[in-house]
Design brief:
The chain is built from twelve helices and four strands; from the N terminus they run ααββααααααβααααβ. Helix 7 runs antiparallel to helix 8 and helix 8 crosses helix 9. The protein is globular, with a radius of gyration of 36 Å. By secondary structure, it is an all-alpha fold. The N terminus is likely disordered. Strand 1 and strand 2 form a beta hairpin. The N and C termini lie far apart (134 Å).
Length: 300
């Protein structure tokens, strides 16, 4: 028994000495979740914060924080232009009914604004039939097309784009009306920031604010409304076709009526059925009562 005890003790002593001399034995006994690369370096295991690939992303906010505001603005603008699919679905059904709704809503706001600021009610209609002002309908469509990708962008971006787009709409509309029909519906000559009397700084700011209201308040409502409408249903298609035909005829007759009014002021007699139709259906008395804020000059 004494010899066996002595042999056992000597074996334990030799095993402990071998363990102390072999450093690799301690490193090889790692937890199952740890891994080692071929060169012996330990690869961090997956912890509560994710894998080792996540380590650079933890430092990303620090790096982003060092960027200048101008760089951040440019990065955000680039992301919105090239990667965002937009807030609203862009198709004919949506854009057409936005045009109709914008024409009605814009005319209502302008009429109320004129009554409050200048006193009294005045017909501010833009077409010969119906409560429509197509400049606002066009503005609604163009603002949606230009701002649809910028819904999640900074308010300053939305404001500046709306200001530029709205001022361009106002300028082009004024130029077109005066060039083709000799009609002048507004003149901002002498006001601050006026551009040939067709638009100015104040109304550019108004367009910017309107764009903010459109994106932040109206577009979410429009999206909710259209989410409950099946644009492919028979009723929706019939209504869209009929309203499209009516608005096309309305716009065409308005252009013809204004053109014929300008011709009458120049003393040009009616020589074809269309001109005679305009003289009978849209005489000067009707047009002057309909477009009270518009002045038509003789066509040269």
């Amino acid at each position: 028994m004494g010899k066996q005890t002595e042999k056992t003790g000597s074996r334990q002593t030799m095993a402990s000495e071998e363990k102390a001399q072999d450093p690799e034995s301690s490193t090889s006994r790692t937890p199952p979740s740890s891994q080692a690369s071929e060169d012996g370096q330990r690869i961090p295991d997956d912890g509560p914060l994710g894998t080792s690939a996540d380590v650079p992303s933890r430092e990303a906010p620090k790096a982003a924080g060092k960027e200048s505001p101008l760089v951040q603005f440019a990065s955000e603008l680039k992301a919105q232009v090239f990667h965002n699919q937009g807030f609203l679905k862009i198709d004919y059904f949506t854009m057409f009914w936005l045009f109709v709704a914008g024409s009605v809503f814009g005319l209502t706001v302008e009429t109320v604004y004129h009554a409050i600021v200048f006193g009294g009610w005045e017909s501010r209609a833009g077409l010969v039939w119906g409560p429509f002002s197509p400049i606002y309908g066009t503005g609604a469509v163009l603002l949606t097309l230009f701002l649809n990708r910028y819904y999640h962008s900074h308010n300053l971006v939305i404001f500046l784009i709306s200001m530029v787009v709205g001022s361009a709409i106002e300028y082009v509309t004024s130029w077109g009306m005066e060039t083709f029909w000799g009609a002048i519906a507004w003149d901002y000559t002498g006001t601050f920031g006026s551009i040939q009397g067709r638009t100015n700084f104040f109304f550019g700011m108004m367009w910017g604010m309107l764009g903010l209201v459109w994106v932040r308040i109206i577009m979410p409502v429009v999206k909710r409304v259209f989410s409950h409408i099946d644009s492919k249903s028979r009723i929706a298609r019939i209504a869209t076709v009929l309203m499209t035909l009516f608005m096309a005829a309305n716009i065409a007759c308005t252009c013809l009526a204004l053109d014929r009014e300008s011709q009458r002021m120049a003393g040009i007699p009616a020589t074809d059925p269309i001109q005679k139709f305009c003289d009978d259906v849209f005489p000067d008395s009707f047009l002057q009562a309909r477009f009270q804020n518009m002045t038509v000059t003789a066509k040269k």
